[in-house]
UniProtKB/TrEMBL annotation:
Entry protein name: DUF3052 domain-containing protein
Superkingdom: Bacteria
Length: 140
């Protein structure tokens, strides 16, 4: 998995006009990351109840949100709402922060969901991001 240090919200790959669905928003999320995504897309983030197809997903995941099985289920649910080629980012607290999740747990959940963790970045002072992609049909 490739790692990019200090990339921030602008490196999540979202572009103008995209609808980004956000899961597990809470008062501990990084508002600068959220604002950066909204500035990049020109649209407000939509919540878990959004009833249409989205272009990308942000999942704020902490260790008390559940284990690998719950994250696997969340990834499958998020992918079901995505347009073809949509990006999924799992954002987790950095090491030493409350709620830290070991990256290997995110990678294993992605594998179990039939997906692949492709890169990791720092998206702010307290959060890291792991990009999750669908496996191509030829690899299944």
């Amino acid at each position: 998995m490739a790692v990019s240090a200090g990339a921030g919200a602008g490196s999540l790959g979202f572009t103008t006009g995209q609808v980004i669905q956000e899961f597990l928003y809470d008062d501990d999320v990084d508002s600068a990351v959220r604002q950066g995504v909204e500035e990049a897309t020109g649209t407000e983030l939509v919540d878990e109840e959004y009833g249409d197809v989205s272009d990308g997903t942000i999942i704020w995941w902490r260790d008390d949100d559940g284990g690998q099985e719950e994250l696997t289920d969340m990834l499958v649910d998020a992918q079901a709402n995505l347009d073809d080629g949509g990006l999924i980012w799992v954002l987790t607290p950095k090491p030493g922060r409350d709620g830290h999740v070991v990256p290997a747990d995110v990678e294993e959940a992605a594998r179990t969901a039939g997906m692949l963790a492709t890169s990791a970045i720092s998206v702010g002072p307290a959060w890291n991001g792991i990009r999750i992609a669908s496996r191509s049909r030829s690899r299944r």
